[in-house]
Structure formats: C-alpha cells, structure tokens
Amino acid sequence: MHVVAIIPAYNEEKRIIASAQDALRFVDEIVVVDDCSHDNTHVHAQSTGAHVLHHIVNRGQGAALQTGMDYALKELNADIIVHFDADGQMMADDIPKLIAPLVSGQADIALGTRFLEKRAQNMPWSRLLTLKLATWFTVLFSGISVTDTHNGFRALSRKAAEDLTITLNRMAHASQILDLIKVKGLRFIEVPVTIRYTDETLEKGQSSLGSFVILKDLFMDRFFSDL
Amino acid sequence: MTFQVLLILFAVFALVRTYRQYKAETISRYWLFLWFVLWVIVIGTALWPQTTDLIAQTVGVGRGADLLLYIAVVVLAYLEYRSMMRQERLHRELTALVRKVAIDRAHKPKND
C-alpha cells in the first residue's frame, strides 16, 4: 500500500518542516501544495524531501487539496491519500489509526473527528458552538450524519479519491466532501483524532465567522452546479 | 420638465458615444441597432410620457413609470445572475489552469 499525505500550505514557513517530518514517519511520500504563499514555504518544504507543488495564484485550501490529490493519483500512484495540515493542530501519530480501516477494506474514506472520545484540546466554546451548528446543518443539507463536519484530517482510498472531485476552492470543501460521500455512496468511518488548540494555531486558523463564507459557497454551488 | 430635458440630453450623448464605438469597430452593427432602439425609446418616453401609461394599462400596471421600473428590476436581476455565473466559471477555469501549472512544474525530491 502506497500511502501519500497531502499538506496544503499557505504562509507556513515556520511550521511546514515540522509537520512534513512528523507526517513522513507514517507515510511513504508527502505532497506539499504551496498555495501562493508570500513567505518561503516552498523553499522550506523542499528541504524536507517532499514533492512540492506551487499554485501561482492563491486558490484556497480546497483547491490546493485537489491539486495534491490529482498529483498523488496520477504521478505517485497512491493507494491511500491522507489529508494533513501544516499548522500543527493535527498529530501524525493518528495517521496509522486513520488508514487502518482503508487497509482492511472496511471503509473507502476515514474522517477524523474531535468529538468521539472528546479529543479536542483547549477548544474555545465559540468554536464548539459553530461546529455543533455545522453538524446539524450538514444533516439537513447533505443528509449525512457525522460528529465533526469540518475536521480536515481524513484518509481516502484510491477509489474514494478518484470519485471525489473538490470544486469548492475555499473552506466549503469539507462540506462538499461529505456531500459527495452521500452522492457517490462511499463507505465512511469516523476515527477519533486529537486536535490541539494553541494561541498560535488559533491565530492562523479559521475564524468562526468564516462559516458564513462556507454557507455562501455551498449555496452558490447548488445554484451553479450545472456549470 | 427639467428631468425630461436632462434625460433627452443624456440619451443623445449616449447615442453619439454608441455611434463612435461602432465607428471604432468595438461594437457590431447589431448592437448599434439595439442601443439605437433603446435610446430612441427613452427619448420618445421623455417627450410623450403619457404613451407609457397606455402601454402599462394594457398589460395591467397602473402607471407607465411603474412599468419601466419593474422591467428595469427584472432585467438587472437577470444580468446580475449571468455575471455571477460567468464569474463562477472563470474561477473554476483559473483553478484548473493554476492546478495544471503546479503539477507540470512539480518539484520532486532528489533521492527519487
């Protein structure tokens, strides 16, 4: 099984080396997609032995993930693709647990969750509220019930990765993936993962207000899905 | 009265602009014709506003001015929808292009 981790990165020169090296302990290859950072993210990423792709125009996290997936499927012949993050909130030690159900053929896609086994460390209450609302919204919108809709830590089998094409450029891709799981009839499983909240990661991460942008992107997509 | 004069002056100004664009070959004869018809109608309604009332009443709207306003809102909403569609498509095409460049120029690790 050839396991490839994809790390979308935007202005992560301080953290990209640590997260890439962390992930490399558990996967065969790493693809870093530098989403037109203003700093030296791509130079730092190259020093880690990762494949480094560079977006010449900033297209958002969803677009960066899809670029990494296209590359991992076509150029690296990946059997399993892991979505990882450069910001240090995720712990690579969780990767083996995440890919185990795919290796055994139990599921097509494994979704990390912060809410089974209460694995979110120091999560602010406003974030908790937003995520709970997102869970209910997803049941209504996509007809799929998961405990954590916007956890970026996931693993996909080759089949799932080929079936899911992310077209939403920004953060709404997490909802779009859930939507497509339902539409394509993929077998999914939720796996508890640890997400660390520190002052540093919160400063860089999404604001809860970003959920309005996600809603806008989702509705726009429904409206224009015939494009 | 002042508004009518201003409207006619603006329409004449727009007609001259459109004709110049046609001469400079930035718009086709077809679009020159469409704009010409539009601005002539504007001048017509400015000169004889009561004619729009007649048209309005035949389609079941009270006043001609109201009819024009309704038509304007519908047309603008449709144009906005079209421009959003176009923008969305441009975004997707840009992403596809950026993705192709990124993959074609991928930096592979040296030990491979």
| SSE series of chain A | EHEHEHEHEEHEHHEEHH
Going across the biggest sheet of chain A, name each strand in turn.
3-2-1-4-7-5-8
Largest sheet of chain B: none
Largest sheet of chain A: 7 strands, mixed
| Total domain modules of chain A | 1
Indicate the multimeric state: heterodimer
Describe, in plain words, how this protein is organized in 3D.
The complex is a heterodimer of chains A (227) and B (112). Chain A is an alpha/beta fold. Chain A has a single domain, classed as Alpha-Beta Complex (Spore Coat Polysaccharide Biosynthesis Protein SpsA, Chain A). Helix content of chain A is 41%, strand content 17%. Chain A has helices spanning 16-24, 41-46, 61-74, 95-103, 125-142, 158-163, 173-184, 199-204, 210-223; strands spanning 3-9, 29-34, 51-54, 80-83, 109-113, 120-121, 154-157, 188-192, 195-196. In chain A, the strands form two sheets. A seven-stranded mixed β-sheet of chain A has the order 3-2-1-4-7-5-8, sandwiched between helices. In chain A, strands 6-9 form a two-stranded parallel ribbon. In chain A, strand 1 (3-9), helix 1 and strand 2 form a beta-alpha-beta unit. Helix content of chain B is 81%, strand content 0%. Chain B is built from four helices and no strands. Chain B has helices spanning 2-23, 29-47, 50-58, 64-104. The interface between A and B is medium-sized, with 25 and 20 residues.
Q: What descriptors fit this protein?
A:
heterodimer, A: 227 residues, alpha/beta, Spore Coat Polysaccharide Biosynthesis Protein SpsA, Chain A, 7-stranded mixed β-sheet, two-stranded parallel sheet, 9 helices, 9 strands, 17% strand, globular, B: 112 residues, mainly alpha, 2 domains, 4 helices, 81% helix
Provide a compact summary of the structure.
The complex is a heterodimer of chains A (227) and B (112). By secondary structure, chain A is of the alpha/beta class.
